[in-house]
Specification:
Blueprint lengths: L6 H20 L5 E3 L4 H13 L4 E3 L7 H11 L3
Parallel strand pairs: 1-2
Helix pairs in contact: 1-2
């Protein structure tokens, strides 16, 4: 079975994020990332940081535990 987490897949994702950020910048848009603290949003957040782009993370934790809320708040502060 092929490893889905090979470096080339990660680099392709980072390259696509960088291209998207350039287009957004030219159009005058802010890159926004939805962040819930779950594993999917953590991956997107990490890829955006590794891509070196300017982005703003937004989250809605109305249904989350206090532990998740604190974690999300710490990660959001990194942007």
């Amino acid at each position: 079975m092929e490893n889905l987490f090979e470096e080339e897949f990660e680099q392709e994702a980072i390259t696509r994020i960088q291209k998207f950020a350039k287009i957004a910048d030219k159009l005058g848009f802010e890159v926004a990332v939805g962040f819930s603290g779950g594993k999917d949003s953590q991956v997107v957040f990490d890829l955006c940081k590794r891509a070196g782009i300017k982005f703003k993370a937004y989250y809605n934790v109305s249904f989350e535990s206090n532990v998740t809320k604190k974690y999300a708040a710490r990660k959001i502060a990194e942007t």
